Amino acid sequence: MEKRLYRSKKNKMLAGVCGGIAEYFNIDPTLIRLLWVLFALMAGGGLIAYIIAAIIIPSEM
């Protein structure tokens, strides 16, 4: 079966983007969320990237 990236409904905090990425790579969603926050604080583009990802990545069926 082909593996696809979706926004998660199980591991959802805001839009399910971090949970979906964690499910895709089979790792803990908290780790992805922490990395996303670090990216947002250091690079400054994390919030914009999250909003774009929430729009582009389809929701889990």
TrEMBL record:
<dbReference type="Pfam" id="PF04024">
    <property type="entry name" value="PspC"/>
</dbReference>
<dbReference type="InterPro" id="IPR007168">
    <property type="entry name" value="Phageshock_PspC_N"/>
</dbReference>
<dbReference type="GO" id="GO:0005886">
    <property type="term" value="C:plasma membrane"/>
</dbReference>
<protein>
    <submittedName>
        <fullName>Phage shock protein C (PspC) family protein</fullName>
    </submittedName>
</protein>
<feature type="domain" description="Phage shock protein PspC N-terminal">
    <location>
        <begin position="3"/>
        <end position="60"/>
    </location>
</feature>
<keyword id="KW-0812">Transmembrane</keyword>
<keyword id="KW-1003">Cell membrane</keyword>
<dbReference type="InterPro" id="IPR052027">
    <property type="entry name" value="PspC"/>
</dbReference>
<keyword id="KW-1133">Transmembrane helix</keyword>
<feature type="transmembrane region" description="Helical">
    <location>
        <begin position="34"/>
        <end position="57"/>
    </location>
</feature>
<keyword id="KW-0472">Membrane</keyword>
